[in-house]
Amino acid sequence: MRIDIITVVPDILTSPFEVSILKRAIEKGLVEIHLHNLRDYVTDNYKQIDDYQFGGGAGMVMMIEPIDKCITNLKSQRDYDEVIYMTPDGDKFDQRTANALSLKGNIIILCGHYKGVDQRVRDHFVTKEISIGDYVLSGGELAAAVVCDSIIRLIPGVLGNETSALTDSFQDDLLAPPVYTRPADYKGWKVPEILTSGNFPKIESWREDQSYERTKKLRPDLLGEE
């Protein structure tokens, strides 16, 4: 997989890909991350990538020309499965979307900034708009990092245990069951006996029951029980 991220502030996105799982995925050659500074596609000395809104109003808007130049340049080199725009009014990001995107080959992620992008960018270049929640960030960079982390960990070979991602919360519309590790008895707080029984069919049944009960209690909306 190759992910090209278009941003006004690439420094924000440097560290997430230099540690832990994402770093190992890159080192293994399972994913390529390329950051593109939008100001590199501006020829004037001021490197201006935003301007005032037509019709007036507070807030600056990212201009169409540098975005066009950047996306057109990338598309001239390879085909892309999606051009994603990170925006608060996009479709709410969830595990199903992460699963689908993890199967793609090449993706462009455009990070919004200021008051957003010229609408013509959304009309003519963007194929998918994603929001990570009903709140506003200073820019789409942190949201892009969240999306990248979520989809990269699903790529085969990224996690040490291939089944780990399949048992995460939301994979089957249920929350994950509670988990425990050693010691089995800490200050009198004991691990459920079923987990130390060695009876794996019963353990799996217990975990399924716990997932359902936790989901019913904490996220009944996932079960259609709002």
Write the layout of secondary structure elements.
Blueprint: E1 2-7, H1 20-27, E2 32-37, E3 50-51, E4 61-62, H2 64-75, E5 82-92, H3 95-101, E6 106-111, H4 119-124, E7 128-131, H5 141-152, E8 185-186, E9 189-190, H6 200-218
Q: What report would you give on this structure?
A:
With 226 residues, the protein is α/β, with parallel strands linked by helices. It has helices at residues 20-27, 64-75, 95-101, 119-124, 141-152, 200-218; strands spanning 2-7, 32-37, 50-51, 61-62, 82-92, 106-111, 128-131, 185-186, 189-190. It has two domains: 2-152, SPOUT methyltransferase, trefoil knot domain (Alpha/beta knot, 3-Layer(aba) Sandwich); 169-223, tRNA(m1g37)methyltransferase, domain 2 (Trp Operon Repressor, Chain A), CATH 1.10.1270. The longest helix has 19 residues, at 200-218. It starts with a strand and ends in an 8-residue tail after the last helix. The mean pLDDT is 93.
Features:
226 residues, alpha/beta, Alpha/beta knot, Trp Operon Repressor, Chain A, two-stranded antiparallel ribbon, 9 strands, 28% helix, 18% strand
Strand content: 15-25%
Highest-level CATH class of the largest domain: Alpha Beta
CATH topology label of the largest domain? Alpha/beta knot
The proportion of residues forming helix, as a percent range, comes to 25-40%
Q: What structural category do the secondary elements indicate?
A: alpha/beta
Mass-distribution shape: elongated
Please give the count of helices: 6
